[in-house]
Amino acid sequence: MKTLNHPPSEADLPALKARALNLRRKMMAMASGKGEGYIAQGLGMADCLASLYFHEMRYDPDNVGWADRDRFVLSTGHYSIAMYAVLAEAGIISPSELPSYGLNGSRLPMSTFDETPGVEMVGGSLGHGLGQAVGMAMALRLDGSPARVFCEFSDGELQEGSTWEAAMGAATFKCDNLVVLIDCNGIQADGPVTVRIEPVADKMTAFGWETREINGNDMDALVGALAGAREKNGKPKAIVMRTTPGFGIPTIMARDRAHFVRIDNSEWDALTQELEKENG
Ligand SMILES: Cc1ncc(C[n+]2csc(CCOP(=O)(O)OP(=O)(O)O)c2C)c(N)n1
Ligand SMILES: [Mg+2]
User: Fold this and answer.
1) Distance CA 216, CA 197 (A)
2) CA–CA separation, 226 and 16 (whole Å)
3) Alpha carbon distance 119, 80 (integer Å)
4) Do 217 and 44 touch, CB atoms closer than 8 A?
5) Substitution site in 126, 158, 182, 241 for ligand 1 pocket (most atoms within 8 Å of beta carbon)
6) Is residue 7 included in any domain, yes or no?
7) 227-259 pLDDT per residue, tens
């Protein structure tokens, strides 16, 4: 079992980048042959998940329900493909389950469900992740646990009032055991984010959060921001991540409508080869 809240050792950036590539490979394998899926968001989040699960977070893959584990709350349930990739890479679920992604009766539905080991929240209805993460952070503190809560949510969810209510609550209740990673990928379903949400970082700061803004596809920036967010100073921490949907595969990055990517069965092999060529 890993030691809780032991300051993580120096980040091994090449190893973390190799993990991120493995996550992208797993996602491509899960989606290929299905013709469609939320692959672009997953590819965009791979670096963030690698930095969390292989550097920053404390958990025990052999004891998923360990009470003092750090929690990862994925608010955007439709990003499940990324969640399953990292759970398999971390040894929490078996990689042999991954091909069942999105199939009837699978433990890996296209939108997250909390019966999947390692999934902390039922996803699907957007705008609820931050509120639940704030509740978890407060409950852990009441229990005297040193665990922290890491919550991902999206730019689309910044248009929902429930997100801002939760943001105010976290600051009011001084949840310094909470770190949010806001995936600002610039899209919301089939187009750009419609309601003006910027300046996101300034707004989070105004709401009482300690805020950092980074390129969410830069591993060095990710580990630096996570290290900066460890301080117990009475403030919740926000990391505003600018990510690129489809990161790692230029053909997918170039797609205009990247939210729910439709890819012909004949195209997957070429795209997987592109991933290896660009990053292998
Ligand atoms: C409460 C709620 N409203 C609408 C939807 C339908 N919906 C699914 S994904 C999505 C896009 C939301 O934007 P974002 O979370 O930024 O996702 P991205 O397009 O970046 O994947 C929407 C509107 C939903 N799942 N939940
Ligand atoms: Mg988005």
Assistant:
1) 18
2) 14
3) 9
4) yes
5) 126
6) no
7) 999 999 999 999 999 999 999 999 999 887 766
Each residue of 191-206: pLDDT tens digit? 899 999 999 999 999 9
Q: Is 119 part of a structural domain of the chain?
A: yes
The CATH number of residue 236's host domain is 3.40.50.970
Instruction: Return d(Cα 13, Cα 249) in angstroms, integer.
Output: 20
The share of the chain scoring above pLDDT 70, in percent, equals 96
Which residues are within 8 A (CB) of 267 and not within 5 positions of it... i.e. 6 or more apart?
A: none
Q: Measure 259 CA to ligand 2 centroid, in angstroms.
A: 8
Whole-number Å distance, alpha carbon 23 to ligand 1 midpoint, is 23
2 within some domain: no
The answer to whether residue 189 is domain-embedded is yes
pTM of the model: 0.96
Residue 262 has φ and ψ, to the nearest 5°, of -105, 125
Which alpha helices (DSSP H) does the chain contain, by range? Answer: 13-31, 39-51, 80-89, 129-142, 161-172, 200-206, 219-228, 250-253, 268-279
DSSP 206-254: HTT-EEEEEETT-HHHHHHHHHHTT--SS--EEEEEE--TTTT-HHHHT
Tally of domains in the chain: 1
